[in-house]
């Protein structure tokens, strides 16, 4: 496994590998790797000749009151996990390498952002799309792997790849969960003991909604109300949102039909947790 910190060196390395006929699977991350990332890497390893992992805490996707400075970082641990997962290259650039000048061009996302997490994080997905545009040009992957825990992000990336004609296959990977159902996340370390016990109820509320839909409930408002009632009764967290849309277009629905996403966010004292499920309905 080789660690590369300079974009031009990464590009030259990948060009040489692709000239040799090798396929490239890419897993972009902000580091502090957990089992969810490991699952992405395992899938990439199985489906490609080469696996590239990027570790870059991207400042442009953090708002002024968000946790860029305190976002957990542990490169030594990340290297160990990457090596165990069979990663060939880690791209580990400094901020100055990725944003070395005042930019003349930024990517602005027009659709799929005014709902869910995007509603309260203006500019967040512009930052995501901008850094991914840079990374896609540097890594030149055949396939890029993202976890469905961040389903809105996948919807935005789907639009980015299509609109900019990137020759990349987007591979969504199911959310990796703890034994009690909590979606694995780097931010779970911020939960206090009692909050951690309560946090499993996020997924339980989604499963409650799934069963209700399978039993014939077709009203988005009714499903959202059931989820809210469960969360308010079983957690001390503050419900940030509970929303149901078509997926991946993220358009509102009067009646549940087609492929849908049910998504929620709950704020605990020092952590805001998100979760979702998707369903394909007739």
TrEMBL record:
Annotated GO biological process: pantothenate biosynthetic process
UniProt GO MF annotations: ATP binding; pantoate-beta-alanine ligase activity
Annotated metabolic or biological route of this protein: Cofactor biosynthesis; (R)-pantothenate biosynthesis; (R)-pantothenate from (R)-pantoate and beta-alanine: step 1/1
Residues the record lists as binding beta-alanine: 61
Reactions performed catalytically: (R)-pantoate + beta-alanine + ATP = (R)-pantothenate + AMP + diphosphate + H(+)
A Pfam entry, by short name: Pantoate_ligase
EC top class named in words: ligase
Keywords: ATP-binding, Cytoplasm, Ligase, Nucleotide-binding, Pantothenate biosynthesis
Recorded superkingdom: Bacteria
Main subcellular location of this protein, as a coarse class: cytoplasm
Binding-site residues, ATP: 30-37, 147-150, 176, 184-187
GO cellular component: cytosol
Cellular compartment(s): Cytoplasm
Positions bound to (R)-pantoate: 61, 153
Documented EC number(s): 6.3.2.1
Catalytic residues identified in the record: 37 (proton donor)
Additional observations: The reaction proceeds by a bi uni uni bi ping pong mechanism.
SUBUNIT field: Homodimer.
Job of this protein: Catalyzes the condensation of pantoate with beta-alanine in an ATP-dependent reaction via a pantoyl-adenylate intermediate.
Family of this protein: Belongs to the pantothenate synthetase family.
HAMAP family registered for this protein in UniProt: PanC
Protein name: Pantothenate synthetase
Origin organism lineage: Bacteria, Bacillati, Bacillota, Bacilli, Bacillales
